[in-house]
Amino acid sequence: MGNLSLSILVLIAIFGSCWSREVVSDNDDGGLYPFIGTNRETLEIIIGGGGGGGEAPAPSPEDCPPPPPEPECPPPASPPPPPPPPPPLPSPIPKPKPKPKPKPTPKPPPRPPSKCGYRSSNLCFENELLATSYGVILKFKKLIKPDENGKRYTKTWNGPNVCKYKGFNCDVRPDVKKKQSPPSISTALSSPASMVPFHSTISSTD
């Protein structure tokens, strides 16, 4: 307040002297009275702080509040979230198992070499004596009367394996060491219905 009063007094002294000079210079005819009221109003305006021409002096730095503290630095921004993981790769399609290879068909065992010691009538016989017996048996077969008893035997008399004919037995001739048929014949063919002139057929094998 002391500084403010001092400033006002200084302003009054300055403006008072200025106004007195202007009044005297403007009224050469000595008419000072019309301006006395004006000077008083002017002084009242200056003293009362009116008129809007003067501004209040700035307060001293001691009366100013301290400046606000500087804002602290904001915390560093958090790092962006990591990108989402890529989608999982599709599982590979399992390959179909190869079909097992079919097992090769086993080859039949080779046939044993045929013992073709003598060939006759497009048939292979073990020796010449059996080939001769085959021809004799075919003649004998034609002489047998056709009955049920004889058919059981004669139906097996086919092919070169003479020793397997039913009713005949093969044996080895001691003089030549070869099989010959028939050294003997089954008596089943000796029934009255199967009687044949057997002596003629046997003699043809000698």
From TrEMBL:
Keywords: Signal. This is Leucine-rich repeat-containing N-terminal plant-type domain-containing protein. Residues 1-20 form the signal peptide. Residues 58-95 have a biased composition (Pro residues). Residues 46-115, 174-206 are annotated as: Disordered. Residues 181-193 have a biased composition (Polar residues). It comes from Gossypium darwinii.
